[in-house]
Amino acid sequence: MWPLLALFLALLSPTVLSLELEVLNEWNLLDLNIPYDYGLINNFRPETNVFTGLEITNDRIFLSIPRLWSGVAATLTVIPRHTPPGSSPRLEAYPSWDFHKLGKGQNDSCDGLTSVYRMRQDSCNRLWVLDAGVNLSLEDFQRICPPKLVVFDLATDQVVRTVVFPRQVLRPNSLLANLIIDETAQGTCDSAFVYMADTAAPGMVVYDGARDTAWRIMHPTMFPDPDFSDYTIAGERFTLMDGVVGLAFSPKLSTVYFQPLATDRLFSIPASALRKGPPSQDEELPITLVGKKASQGLGLALDPKDDTIYFSPVRETSVAAWNPVTNQQKLIAYDQDKLQFAAELRWREQDNSVWLLSTRFQKFFRRTLNPQDVNLRIIRISTTPSLQTGLTNNLYF
């Protein structure tokens, strides 16, 4: 086990570090292109719309907006991939507004999307969308529909597969909030394994695409730690007891990394232990404590070329990198304003960069939003060595 991020941020120059942040898009509040004849236009509340999931394709950026509170019009949205730097494009519902209608007589068949936290693209140019099936998860937790995976062909934007999870792998308060697609073990696309984080009923759900079956795995390391249930960001404090949510996968090491939100720890488990099927009652899962961070964090990303893990400790408003093989540690970026609560981190191999969603979630949670401020950003951070001048690696003990 290694200490992952004992930062002495006071020794750093925010001016130098801020050069590493490329703000691609930013919003004071999200703006959706809601049709005038659509029922939710009068109920749309921008102050309750905060994105949590990010996927980048060649021509589009997908953003998920879970229904944490009332007033969310569309839970899966899309914007063009190439827009002017710092622009605030209006979000379009994906694949259409018909998939997002809720209410009496609407989505009663559960064919649409209820609440999406995250989605992932596979090697067949398809988007796997994880629908938690829960409405108002931070108000009164309404189970509207069974959790499911909905797979879209990105060439046609049509549904090509739907997987509804059986009750035996769920719990009454299950909230599936993140996923990994593993195409290394038994084939790609429909044959892939999918590992999913159950945040509110802490555990993981594994789906075997080739056999169309699923099972549940639980372990104390997936539960929140009450000692880390309070978060302080830019002087504002809030409490959230979330279990496992951050996930990253190393194809080279065949290892899944995971972290609850309410903890300062990062854990790992061999992917083979997840793929083998439901564990027996007395079986011990081979889970390893990887290390401790300076504070809690949500998103994880991994560079598969060298297995470097990227994470963002919320209190330090920073992004850091750590390689579990070499123990090399870096501070990638630090910004007290732009890096408030990184809800999602993604590694993009095409440009050797970390993309993230910065959300100022504490202000949404505490109802302290100022609509005149920039509260939501899509940020790109280059990891090109030439851009890391001015950073020091001697920041850890």
Automatic annotation (TrEMBL):
InterPro entries: 6-blade_b-propeller_TolB-like, MRJP/yellow-related. Residues 1-18 form the signal peptide. Keywords: Secreted, Signal. Belongs to the major royal jelly protein family. The keyword Secreted applies. This is Uncharacterized protein. One of its GO terms (cellular component) is extracellular region. SUPFAM superfamilies: NHL repeat. The keyword rRNA-binding does not apply. It is found in: Secreted.
